[in-house]
Amino acid sequence: MAPEVDVREEVIGIDLGTTNSCVAVVRNGTAEIIANDQGHRTTPSFVAFSAADSERLIGEAAKKQAALNPRRTIFDAKRLIGKKFNDPEVQRDLRYLPYLVVNKNGKPYVEIELAKSKGRREISAMILGKMKETAESYLGQPVSGAVVTVPAYFNDRQRQATKDAGRIANLNVLRIINEPTAAAIAYGLNSLHRKSKHTKSKILVYDLGGGTFDVSVLEVDGQDFRVLATGGDAHLGGGDFDQRLMEYFIRLIKRKFCKEDISEDKKALGRLRKECETAKRDLSNQSQVRVEIESLFQGVDLSETLTRAKFNELNLDLFKKTLEVVEATLKDAKLGKSEIEEVVLVGGSTRIPKLREMLKEMFDGKEPCKGVNPDEAVAYGAAVFGSKLTKLHAGVTLVDVTPLSLGIEDAYGLMKVIIPRNTPVPTKMSMEFSTNEDQQTSMSTKVFQGERPLTKDCIHLGKFVLSDITPAPRGVTIVEDTLEIDEDGILKVTSREKIPGAKSKSLTITSYKGNLTQNQIKRMIKEAKEMAEQDKIARACVDARIELESYIYDAKNAFLTGDGLEQVGDKRGKVEIICSMRAASGWLDANQGATREVYEKKLNELRGVWDPILITAKKI
Hints:
Elements: E1 12-15, E2 20-27, E3 30-33, E4 43-44, E5 47-49, E6 56-58, H1 60-64, E7 73-74, H2 88-94, E8 100-104, E9 107-111, E10 118-119, H3 120-139, E11 145-150, H4 156-168, E12 172-178, H5 179-192, E13 200-208, E14 213-221, E15 224-233, H6 238-256, H7 266-282, E16 288-297, E17 300-307, H8 308-332, E18 342-346, H9 353-362, H10 377-388, E19 397-401, E20 406-409, E21 415-419, E22 424-425, E23 427-434, E24 443-449, E25 459-466, E26 478-485, E27 491-497, E28 508-509, H11 518-561, H12 571-590, H13 596-616
Parallel strand pairs: 1-11, 11-12, 13-18, 15-19
Antiparallel strand pairs: 1-2, 2-3, 2-4, 5-6, 5-7, 8-9, 9-10, 13-14, 14-15, 16-17, 19-22, 20-21, 20-24, 23-26, 24-25, 25-28, 26-27
Helix pairs in contact: 3-4, 5-10, 6-7, 6-8, 8-9, 11-12, 11-13
């Protein structure tokens, strides 16, 4: 374990989720989930920008206006972090994202209309900054230290990118820990309150969130947590279930109404996504729901019944895929299903009844544990672990594992594993390599991560060049490569020639993708601070627009479907009211980038004309 960090302020725990994020802190020995400025204990992982990039919204406010501003509202950024643009999973997602993602030096960047492009680290940094702001507002003091969670199956590049995002948000990320491990801490401490003594138990954490899926098997003994094995899919979650529903309705619309592809209309796609997510959630408590969207696409009104059975049918292969991961992880842990005492469910997607039913059947009728809140457990555990890093609180012992094997490519393109998967971390292992040519004076070594025998099928992490080695016949000079993983799962590589008394020589990293330069970090931090000053203004502007839009909609409904027009004396007056309603809707569409003051002025203007009639008709 790492030595205790000398931090005397509160350390927060952040669950940086694909769909929602959550922040917690330990005060007076008790972990608390911190509600945001809307009173909600989780915050949507949404970021929105104005047309001129002058205003930014994060969280609830950004999600509310997503349907009106689809090309400048960013979500699911976690599915892009640390990945290459040409990654097949990234390419698959791009079809259903309403915003534009472009290729910049092999990395996916969000291209915002009429504004600067944003890297996926910057988007994640904005969400982390919002969590920091939420905690500071609650605690009444500045916060810098944080423990941030990531999916267990995140690779080294993705973990480093998450740390970079924390730095941009002006956070000192003390540790990166795996989400299911954090959830296990929450479960373990909760179970301690229910048990009279410490008992050793083996648990399985099934963590299915909005965009990632993890399984971890742990041994819990009081406040000691040892990860035995981990598995998962860093690109599987509730968002994929939403996508299946979207694909179903897109096919249905094309078959019943029109031949054109609705996926080309980003605004319609955003509205459909919102309704599909709502339907998915409602089907956890209802056997069927109505999916209704007025004038969705080319005048088509979508009005269809969606049953829970149909939802299960559309996603059954994905459900089964998660159970295959559970089987594989149990095998890695060398445990049978009967040896698992508790199955702990984490992540909002675990509320899906069919998934719970399949898990229960898999574990011979054992009911999944309901002792932790699936939306809050990860942040709770991260806060508890963060508190142990300070001088303020006693510690929790955590031994995690590396999710994927790490190794070196040999001369034949084979993966030479140095650190096997599920090795407890922190760890440090070495392997010796000899030269392949006579009189060789440098050695180039490529480092990979993965389980495939050929490096072309694994994840390339970096190229290491050791210079000035002793020239000698082939195979005589020996070089030792050492791979070291710290508590955050971040990889460090050193290389030295095996000569008695020789010191380690410098290692040049020529293609590592995770780190940002100091200038890039400084620029992003500066931009984040500048944007933060404008957040309150932007929020007030969006609220004013929403209020105006709601008033126009309610007034139109009252006039056209009720007795509102009957209060207008003559035919000419009625025509004028109808024209003014159309003009108001047109004005709103044409002034999406207006200021709060302009929206409020327009609202007062309309109220002056419409309210007297509506009040008479007793409609407001």
